[in-house]
Write a structure and sequence with these properties.
The chain is an alpha+beta fold and 221 residues long. It folds into 2 domains: 74 residues, no CATH class; 136 residues, Phosphorylase Kinase, domain 1 (2-Layer Sandwich), CATH 3.30.200. A hairpin with a 2-residue loop joins strand 5 and strand 6.
Length: 221
């Protein structure tokens, strides 16, 4: 069991966490069940200790799940393969900025649920005019906005609520190293990226990835 524990520790410490698709999760469960059933029905060789035999079976199951995870990253909504170092930096800095914003007194520079107050506040403070949308009817009340600096970008940040969660929407001019559109989970936080009209949007929250997708759809209406 120590081998399994060491493997799990190494995976948690070294590998980024991505939201697996439902198809990947189903496939992984099926593979684990098949390996388990094969192991349960397999005779233990007479010259091989039972504990060692079952440990090997467990290692095969873990290896199968690891293969499933690696395969899933290639077909998930946010591709890890070919992801540049600059995108890795951006993603990590976005999570850092989100966490920092939750510290007392750091969340908002302009506190208002009125988009006609929040939008003009950005004039002259950033080179973009972000669309400030009232999403209270969709369950995402506008809380206000602030300025951020993330991975070399000055970002206009809009902050929305979602029940007990906070969603920060970071917006800047899109560039060549934005990374693909899609969703991922890093350090327990959900991120959703998309581009539109020459702007790059990153929504970050501790809400579920599905909540961010609902937020994106409401924002783009």
């Amino acid at each position: 069991m120590k081998e399994l524990s060491d493997l799990g520790t190494a995976m948690r410490d070294s590998l980024p966490v991505y939201e697996a698709s439902p198809e990947l999760r189903r496939w992984a469960r099926q593979e684990a069940r098949k390996l388990d059933q094969q192991g349960m029905g397999e005779e233990v060789p007479a010259n091989r200790p039972r504990a060692r035999f079952w440990r090997a079976s467990q290692m095969r199951i873990a290896a199968g799940l690891l293969v499933a995870a690696v395969a899933g990253w290639g077909v998930g909504s946010f591709r890890a393969v070919g992801r540049s170092t600059s995108v890795e930096t951006t993603v990590n800095e976005l999570v850092d900025a989100h966490v920092r914003s939750l510290l007392p007194g750091h969340l908002l520079d302009v506190v208002s649920s009125d988009r006609h107050t929040v939008k003009p506040w950005f004039a002259g403070k950033t080179d973009i005019a972000p669309a400030v949308v009232d999403l209270s009817a969709s369950g995402f009340p506008l809380l206000g906005g602030r300025l951020d600096y993330v991975a070399g970008h000055t970002a206009a940040t809009l902050t929305y609520g979602r029940r007990l969660h906070t969603i920060n929407l970071f917006i800047w001019r899109s560039g060549q190293s934005e990374g693909p559109n899609g969703a991922l989970v890093l350090r327990g936080y959900s991120l959703l990226h998309w581009t539109s009209g020459g702007l790059s949007y990153w929504a970050v929250s501790d809400a579920a990835p599905s909540e961010l997708e609902t937020f994106r759809q409401a924002y783009l209406k």
